[in-house]
Write a structure and sequence with these properties.
This protein is of the alpha+beta class. It contains six helices and ten strands, in the order E-H-E-H-E-H-H-E-E-E-E-E-H-E-H-E. The strands form three sheets. A six-stranded antiparallel β-sheet has the order 1-4-7-8-9-10, with helices on both faces.
Length: 236
Amino acid sequence: MGIDGGRLVDLKREGQWRLDPRVPEAQQAGEALYADNDFDRGHLVRRLDPVWGDDAEVRAANADTFHFTNAAPQHAAFNQGKQLWAGLEDFLLTHAATFDRRLVVLTGPVLRPADPVYRKVRIPLAFWKVVAFLQGGALAATAYVLDQSPDLPNASAALAAAEAADQPPPLGAYRTFQVPVSDVADITGLDLGPLPAVDLLPAPPSPAPTAPGAEPGPDRWRPLGRHEDIVLGPPR
């Protein structure tokens, strides 16, 4: 999804969540997933990111973000981690203000076999975002992960108990990390083309895990407490 920061429109929030007619209903999680619980319908593509252009384009883009195909269940509590995640594009657009003020943002859930099941839907506990832009006339990229895994001593047991009782899984407070772009490729199985090679985050000190089924995680990721913690140095 492309963002033209110089043409963004601060459109008042309007729109109702609905199924996407371009996708079979059986492949979508609709209102039934969010009824009578504390789940937020979390926008994956942020509502205002594609809201730029002429009036018709602005209104069509705003409406398009309210399809359930752009929603994921997220913890209802608003906290610092969620604020960080929601403001990443704004921060990076400001950083790019002296250049083109344009970003390409890729985002989605981290889908794991161990994610808990609720109402026959597997609930992602983490989300990823990769942002590409020009810096000094050259392609650059950064990547982020939002983790809402429950911070409980017996988290696995709590998730299993909730699934057995058909209750919403316990979700933890948001934790936001800046991560190597290559780690996002590893945990999603996506081909991110040239973006890992132009990552602005220095290589982590520990090598990527090699054990079968292992994947990168918070032990080698950079936790963010504020946007100013983001590393935007020269590509490695």
